[in-house]
Amino acid sequence: LLSRQDVVLSGDVGVRFLDAFAGSQTCKIDCLLRLATKFSKITELFRCNIDKVFGMLVTSVIGTDNADLLKIVLEVPFAADIINHIDNRVRTLLQFAAHKPTLRCLAVLFQHPDLEVGGFVGFFADKFPKFFIEFLHHINGRPKLAELMQKDMTTCNRLLVDIIDRDQADLLASALSVPFGEEIFQFVDNNGFTLLHYALCKNKRGCLQVLLSDHLPVPNDGFLAALFRENATEKLFDLFPIYPKVIDIILSDLSTLIRNLHENALNGDQVDLLHFVLSVPFATEIVNVVDDRGRTLLYYAFLEAQSIALLKSDTVTYQCQQDFPVL
Q: Is the pLDDT of residue 96 over 70?
């Protein structure tokens, strides 16, 4: 019948035809969707009544998390128009699927190359934070999921901080496994902190093991300065016997370390902090670095009349010769 020229499915006739499938059993919906992939008349009927088709899919496909039926939808010639359609409540199939959440249908939707994700993560993260955790479980091998995160890094970072609070290292590792994992790792929030800052300050050992792994880079400039602002520098030094990456982090920005030791330790007479810094095996490298003003830590110690804290140390060798100020 569908191949006959005199069979018409336009106007009211087409609407009544679709109404006959509304609320139908899965087998009937399956039949209708398969017809839409093979017969132009059904395809055109779908196109002209996309609101009705959308409602049918929300109820009979998304509502039952029937991923097999949704896969058939993606075979319809104008599938992109269907999956990106916005109803009168300003929602797409993606948003209905996330609201449930129907994870099998979400996985199918994310496979379509033309799926529009927009501000999806930001919108749903506030209302359905548990979904974000499921989202991370399914992220590997699905580029659209990764794209969602990259489009809303601020929200994703906030949610990952919550994951760090719970020390859920496996979820954090999933998030950092995406192609732009380094971008997530280096992202600085409005407080000037990265994920590593939060893990350090809160002493979340599981997440620290992930963030200090060898495959991740050394943090960008500004990392040590932020640690000093939170008085968390000792927490970083405490970890160097466990994680070799910590030494790389400290040595990568020695000028900042010297400047902040001057401003916070020497100026503030925090002798204990100086003794702590000098107790590490690589203390000689720290005390002999020359900052952007041509000065060393020993110079600043003399300047602030705190030289005894350094001079009593037997663990370092001073290599830089310079003129010291008169005390």
A: yes
